[in-house]
Amino acid sequence: MLRNLIFWLSTKKRVTEAIARNGMRRGFARRFVAGETLAEALAPSTELCRAGRRVSLNQLGENVATPEEARQSRDSYVATLEALERAGLDGNISIKLTQLGLDLNRKLCLSLTQEIAARAQALGRTIEIDMEGSAYTEATIEIFEAVHREHGNAGLAIQAYLRRSQSDLERLAPLSPKVRLVKGAYREPAEIAFQKKSEVDASYRRLLDLLLRTRASGCFFTAIGTHDPELVAYACARVKEYGVPRERYEFQMLLGIRRDLQRQLFAEGHPLRVYVPWGTAWCPYFMRRLAERPANLWFVLRSLLAER
């Protein structure tokens, strides 16, 4: 119920405007969002890399309205890659295809994504394509396939709550890609996505087994994207059981979430990449983080009350 309430609130303009107006100024959003500028995002990224973590920078924003906005997003993604290179950080970028015009013109979106991947390839870096709502799943996979075949440096997020995801992994296996397995954070109908946490968790385990087991035949690089301690423990056990080498997997966690688990995994010697979001369009992302875990909401409320 609380999750649904937060999703509902995220559709209310007055609520999101108030959060956007106060979130950075009061500081409670900075636990989950690095800042509104690339320079602000590079500061925590540098600290994380110095501490031995990897990073994935993501400029927040979805569903651009014009081709020019899509090209501006392309330019910003390229600038982020070049900033990582200048700073010498162990990082890549995560991109959203609706930020590159997927709603407007699929050919334009593919072209812009190819340009980003080409620049990343020239720098010896990778990109990861985020998965958005289910209306975009098929188009996202098709664009990923084209980009990865051309440049060989793209990864893709797969959402465990979608009923189609196992067949999607089987389809992608011949490409031997990097796959970031996540639970999924969008509201989806029951015919498309599992609704109960127990069902989503069971699907996550099945898909993770598929990703890690097929490592024996060289199919996937697996990015384990979860903050659920039970799933983290399950993943650690399977990595050990299947003998997955360090260069073929990593854990991925979001900036500011379950920092205790992040420290634990790193201390145990597991590769860890931290997803570092930034940008002015941070409020929808922030609301999804609140919806995913009620403890995040209590953190924000405590921050607000403490600063009255």
What would your notes on this structure say?
The chain has 308 residues and is of the alpha/beta class. The chain has one domain (34-281): TIM Barrel. It is built from twelve helices and eight strands. The chain has helices at 2-9, 13-26, 38-50, 67-87, 106-122, 137-151, 165-172, 197-213, 229-242, 259-267, 283-292, 294-306; strands spanning 54-59, 91-95, 127-129, 154-159, 178-182, 221-225, 249-254, 272-278. Strands 1-2-3-4-5-6-7-8 form an eight-stranded parallel beta barrel, surrounded by seven helices. α8 (197-213) links the parallel β5 (178-182) and β6 (221-225).
Structure keywords:
308 residues; TIM Barrel; 12 helices; 8 strands; 52% helix; 14% strand; disordered C terminus
Classified by CATH, the class is Alpha Beta
Mean pLDDT: 88
Q: Provide the CATH architecture.
A: Alpha-Beta Barrel
Spatial extent as radius of gyration: 18 Å
- Alpha-beta classification: alpha/beta
Q: Could you say what the CATH topology is called?
A: TIM Barrel
Gap between N and C termini: 28 Å
- Which range does the strand content fall in? 5-15%
